[in-house]
Amino acid sequence: MLKFNSPIKEEKTYNELKIFEVEPIIKFNLRSNKREFSTKIGKILSILPPNEANTSSGNENFNLLWLSPDEWLVYSNDKFENLDEQLKLENNLFNEISRLNQGAVTNVSDHWVMINLKGSKVYDMLSKGCPYNFNDFKEKKGAVVQTILNHTDIILHNKDDNNLNLFVRRSFSEDLWLWINDSTRFI
Fold first, then answer.
1. For residue 75, what are the contacts with CB-CB under 8 A and spacing of at least 6?
2. Quick check: 75 and 155 in contact, CB under 8 A?
3. Which residues of 135-170 are buried (b: 16+ CB within 10 A; e: fewer)?
4. Rounded CA gap, 36 and 117, in Å?
5. How far apart are CA 101 and CA 78, in angstroms?
6. How far apart are CA 178 and CA 29, in angstroms?
7. Could you read off the pLDDT of 84-117 as tens digits, one per residue?
8. Domain residue spans in the chain?
9. Pick the CATH number of 16-184 from 3.30.1360.120, 3.40.50.300, 3.20.20.220, 3.40.50.720
C-alpha cells in the first residue's frame, strides 16, 4: 500500500448521521469465470464468493462484494497497519489464483476510498444526489449496489441497519466528501 495523503482527514457528525473514512484497509479486485476459483477463494479467505447479483458474503475478517458475474471486490474488516500482512495475503492470492491461471487478482487498496455512513438520515442524504431507489436495498443486510452519487460512480455495501460502506475512486473522493458534507447539513 502506498503512503498517501487522504483528502478526508476528519470524522463528521450531522443530525443523526456520522461520516468517516476507514483507512487503511486491504481491497482486492478478483476476476474469474472458472469453477475452481470459488473453491480457491473459499480456502484462502474462508468465504465463498456470492453468485447472486448485488449481494455479498463475509466473515469476521473480510467482505466479498458481487460486482458482476465474474468480478468481486474483497475488503478487510480491520485496518492493516502492517504492510507485511497485506503482502502475505496478496502473494497467497496471486500464487493460488493468478499464477495458476484461475483468474486475476488486482490490489486496489490505493484505488478505492471507503467512507462509512451511519445513522438514521443516511438514506435521506443519499437520495439528494442518487437516482437509485433504496426501498429494497435498505431492508437487505449485505446488499450491494453500483450507482452514482453527485455524478460520481460509487459502490454501496449495506452492512447493517443504517450502516453503509461507500466506495469511491480516490481521485473523486475529495469532491464527493465535500458534497456529502454540504448536503448533510441540510437534512
1. 25, 26, 27, 28, 62, 63, 65, 114, 165
2. no
3. eebeeeebbbbbeebbebebbbbbbeebebbbbbee
4. 35
5. 29
6. 27
7. 877 889 999 999 999 898 999 999 988 999 999 9
8. 16-184
9. 3.30.1360.120
Question: Is this structure's pTM higher than 0.85?
Answer: yes
d(CA 96, CA 83): 20
- Separation between Cα atoms, residue 176 and residue 149, nearest integer Å: 8
d(CA 28, CA 159): 18
Residue that has been written with the C-alpha cell 437534512 in this structure: 187
Alpha carbons 16 and 13: distance in angstroms, whole number:
7
Mean pLDDT by 10 residues, the chain (187 residues): 64 90 89 92 94 95 96 89 80 92 92 94 95 94 97 96 95 94 87
Residue 67 phi/psi, 5-degree rounding, is -110, -35
Do you find a cis peptide bond into 24, omega within 30 degrees of 0? yes
Chain centroid to CA 66: how far? 10
The β-bridge partners of 158 are: 164
